[in-house]
Specification:
The complex is a heterodimer. By secondary structure, chain A is an alpha/beta fold. Chain A is built from 18 helices and 27 strands. In chain A, strand 10 and strand 11 form a beta hairpin. The chains are: A alpha/beta, B mainly alpha. At the A-B interface, loops of A face helix 1 of B.
């Protein structure tokens, strides 16, 4: 008999009869028949488990092994992998369910893109009574998010040859063995795909991580931290991984830089004044003071690109604050933000360039180290920060595109807002971040030809980030680099029509649809389409449609 | 001596009023942050209300679209 397309790998241990039946039934009801189910009973004491598995194994597509003694989920999963002969391994927990069209949809996506070595789908939760809740509509493949949250989770499908190449599940990461495996496979994967459809139903039992959270499996969260740390160590990411003290599934990378590369902070300024905390000040003076007084990083210079309107008195005060670190480059042309950034970069010498608006204030002292932690990753083209308005509201937590046009996700939301599925709290790849605070390696800046001077006012940062994307580089939002941005909340966000048209014409093919959003999300939150999609997925219609297609 | 005394009294008053200004500013900033949290919640609620409003309007839009399709079909049939 030919090897099947999919091997569904399921370790089983003391599964309640009802949910075990539902899991087995969800596999049997697959509209795509080219699968095998590899079940390994991890020495369950409950007699119904053996009976039900033996009954299931009457189907020739079901392989079953019983372990002589309980070995834990990693040992049982590796035993199940030994049984697998399929081209792809599908991970299914013993108390969860597959959507009837799950394998058909996965198969179609894999045929569309034969280079895919890892694929994941959206998921929801289902309680013991069969009620569905909490659909998770995920972004496209985001390696940076994967280091701070195991967001791909279920359904995960991996090319079996690659799973074998990396040695299967590692017992060192028991409880987070799937996160570790996905990290090791994706380090070598040629391509990763995401299907934005709810094709997996994760059971919320008191004993499962979905239902019981950290209390159910406290060891799993620490194993997750170690798995990400091991990944960082393997891939050269200069970071120490820590767990969030409040949100169990959220992790933070803390910089552990091995060197101190020179950084050039480029600040274009017109020397304007505005009220900050009820005191009128020249914003650039306030900004430079906060950089000098709060930053812990030492190897940096500040290059102020100053309009003719900046008076000598202000320049003198900047010199008093920053001393030898400061270089002032006069700019005498008509206003062009891109040209000012490019001029400042030409006059700087750092290996990494940090574009900074003049109306910023540093909050976290290790902000430069944090940005460097990401900017030193060779595949990262630009890094942005979490920015707050003066009153603490969110000003920037990444840029998302709707119909090819960009906008700041959750702009004006409370500073305490965590975002949909904690997206404000975790690192994430976006198509773009704001240049109000943006670090980029000089090498990438030069390759891209700097900022585009044909966009003097708006979208020059978005354009730059999309250039990075077109060079095959990623753009990162770091939630833990936090600064104030004293942009007026009421500032007009008006953009000229020609700017919109230019952006869509130049980058529409890359940005519409936004790969880091999800068709079911609108402005970062589930929209109407999400509800309709979910209702459709839970109805018999997808299965009927699958039958009709066959 | 009298002038010096006056000057030091003035300086002390000036310092006192500076401290008071700083204290009031700090109070205002704290209030602004509280207001910011509340304003942010309003923005968040407005965004979700907008989504709900779209949802409420959806059946009407669907009916409108169906009517449009029916009318177009009928007019085509009529030639």
């Amino acid at each position: 008999m030919a090897d099947p397309r999919f091997s569904i790998v399921t370790p089983v241990y003391e599964t309640p009869a009802e949910v075990l039946r539902a899991m087995l039934e969800s596999v049997r009801r697959q509209t795509m028949p080219d699968w095998e189910l590899c079940l390994v009973d991890d020495a369950s004491a409950e007699p119904h488990v053996r009976e039900m598995l033996e009954e299931a194994a009457r189907d020739a597509r079901v392989k079953m092994r019983r372990r002589a003694e309980n070995g834990g989920i990693v040992a049982a999963s590796n035993d199940a992998l030994e049984l697998a002969r399929g081209e792809f391994v599908v991970l299914l927990d013993h108390d969860d369910e597959l959507h009837p069209t799950a394998l058909a949809a996965v198969d179609a996506e894999l045929r569309r893109n034969p280079e895919v070595d890892y694929l994941y789908t959206d998921e929801d939760k289902v309680d013991a009574g069969g009620r569905h809740e909490g659909p998770f509509f995920k972004p496209g493949w985001s390696p940076e998010r994967m280091r701070t949250q195991m967001y791909t989770c279920h359904l995960s499908v991996l090319r079996r040859s690659l799973v074998e190449e990396v040695g299967g599940f590692d017992p060192e990461f028991e409880g987070s063995q799937d996160w570790d495996l996905v990290l090791r496979v994706t380090e070598r994967a040629r391509a990763v795909a995401h299907i934005p459809r709810v094709l997996y139903h994760w059971r919320t039992l008191e004993t499962s991580a979905a239902g019981g959270g950290e209390a159910a499996k406290p060891y799993a969260f620490e194993a997750g931290r170690r798995a990400v740390q091991a990944h960082c160590d393997r891939t050269g990411v200069q970071a120490r991984v820590e767990r969030d003290p409040v949100d169990a599934g959220v992790y933070h990378l803390e910089p552990a830089l091995r060197g101190k590369p020179p950084v050039s902070i480029v600040i274009p300024t017109g020397g304007r004044r505005r009220e900050i905390r009820y005191e009128e000040v020249p914003v650039v003076e306030h900004c430079v003071r906060s950089v000098v007084e709060r930053s812990t990083y030492e190897n940096y210079e500040i290059v102020c690109v100053a309009d003719a309107s900046v008076d000598d008195g202000l320049i003198g005060r900047l010199r008093d604050i920053a001393g030898d670190r400061l270089q002032v480059v006069p700019y005498e042309e008509p206003f062009n933000y891109s040209a000012k950034v490019n001029l400042g970069s030409e006059h700087s010498s750092g290996e990494h360039l940090l574009q900074l608006n003049d109306d910023m204030e540093v909050i976290r002292p290790d902000w430069i180290e944090r940005l460097l932690m990401y900017s030193t990753i060779p595949e990262v083209g630009a890094v942005g920060a979490r920015l707050l308005f003066e009153d603490g509201r969110l000003q920037h937590a990444g840029v998302i595109f709707q119909n090819g046009l960009p906008g700041h996700v959750y702009r004006g939301f409370p500073g305490s807002f965590k975002g949909y599925s904690n997206s404000v709290l975790v690192a994430q790849n976006y198509l773009a971040v704001t240049a109000a605070c943006l670090m980029t390696a000089r090498e990438h800046f030069d390759r891209a030809g700097g900022f585009s001077v044909d966009l003097p006012n708006n979208y020059n940062d978005v354009d730059y980030c999309l250039k990075m994307r077109s060079l095959g580089l990623r753009v990162v939002y770091d939630p833990d680099t936090i600064l104030y941005h004293f942009e007026s909340v009421s500032r007009s966000m008006e953009v000229a029509e020609w700017e919109k048209e230019l952006l869509v014409e130049r980058w529409g093919a890359l940005s519409d649809p936004d790969p880091y959003s999800n068709p079911n999300l609108r402005e970062g939150s589930p929209g109407i389409r999400a509800g309709l999609h979910w209702a459709y997925q839970l109805s018999p219609l997808p299965r009927l449609a699958g039958r009709l297609r066959r | 001596m009298g002038a010096e005394g006056n000057q030091s009294t003035l300086l002390a008053e000036l310092e006192e009023s500076r401290r008071e200004v700083d204290r009031l500013r700090a109070l205002l900033v704290a209030k602004d942050e509280e207001l910011g949290e509340a304003r942010g919640r309003v923005t968040q609620l407005e965004a979700s209300s907008l989504r709900l409003a779209h949802l409420v309007a959806l059946p009407l839009r669907l009916v409108g679209r169906l009517l449009h399709v029916a009318r177009t079909g009928l007019s085509k049939l009529r030639g």
